[in-house]
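Incident review: delayed structure delivery

Summary: a single-chain prediction request sat in the queue longer than the usual turnaround. Root cause was a stuck worker, restarted by the on-call engineer. No data loss occurred. The affected request and its eventual output are reproduced below so the record is complete for anyone auditing the incident later.

Affected input:
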Amino acid sequence: MLRQIKMADLCNELEKQLEKLQYSEDSMRRYRKVFREFAEYTGDCYYSQSKGTDFLLWKFNQLGGFVTSGEHSKNEMYYFRVIRSLAEYFNFGTIFRRNDYHGEIVWPIPFKDATENFLRFEVEQGCSKSYYRRGRDIIKDLILFLDSAGVHDLSGITPGLISRFTETMVGLAPATIAERLSALRQYLRYTFIHGYIDKPIETYLPHPPQRLRTKLPTVWSEEQIEQLITSMDITTSVGKRDYAILLLAARLGLRIGDILSLTLNSIDWENKIITIIQNKTREPLSLPLPDDVGWAIIDYLKSGRPATDYPNIFVTHNAPYKGVPFQSTLRHNITKALKRAGISIDKSKHYGWHSLRHSLATNLLQNDVSVSTISDILGHSDPQVAKHYLRVDMKGLRKCSLDVEVKDYVKE
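Output delivered after worker restart:
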């Protein structure tokens, strides 16, 4: 059984946590408003997630129904966010700023041993950081779902609950659904094999059809890449950050996850070399640091990056300024940059940050660079992976090469 706490006390605890995380006064005002209304609605009783759901239904009925756009949509989303934060804090003792939380989770006691042992097993098996986070996040969502259904331990999981939980994924991209189901299947299988549950619940999970890569990746021409780069607003601290990230993706073809994982020790300024351990393959990769990339990073470190002890080069610009907690806004950032540059977006193709990596590889192919060399540049574990870029029709695109000229800027 989970802990019991009065509604007002839980709201007070969460308010102190938000203040500790240095939420803005405007955000605190909104949270306090919902706390006050929620406490008035529930009265002097113990918290449960079902009471939060009842409160939302009551509130939106007062507002004339829930809408996702228009005058009241932002206000209504705050109600969702606050009640969701209460559920997260009640279950895990922390809150998750956006969906890409990178802190440590304190698992509820009934799930603690099974979950921590499973995640430790995954790490020992050599899973990537991104796979680890996907597994952790789907388990977190499952626990929140079970709590809303009044189930507070693994033994209470039934095929019916699993079916209802998978229905909550409706609307997500097929690839995302497949990833979440795979991670959930691994977790449930582990808990059954190791005796935490007495039924092979994972067998009730649907198996999404294997989808071949049907969408061709977007490839930007050399002119479009330069147009995108020059359109970036580097007068703001966030603009300086996003500009440096963009250059790392466009000039070096680094995956966005590897860019966000860069630390202050990843760059050898004396030899102008950037070295990483790739999140996807766990293989090391070293590349020369081009002139404009180095200057952009230096400009961000000196004039844009908030003062923080966090080791990542790129950090959030909301207190407490931790590293890589802004992944949920990445697609929005690249879309905004493309619109600012006046580059049309073909929504039938993939046009996210990975398109910059595709563009570099494809343009190198057009410049008669060998597949094995491109694989070395991009850090592929298998040279055959680079042949994926041969699927793209390159007619009309200009040739370009990897600019690895580095000037002696680091001592200036």
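Verification: The first strand starts at residue 267 and ends at 268.
Action items: add queue-age alerting; document worker restart procedure.
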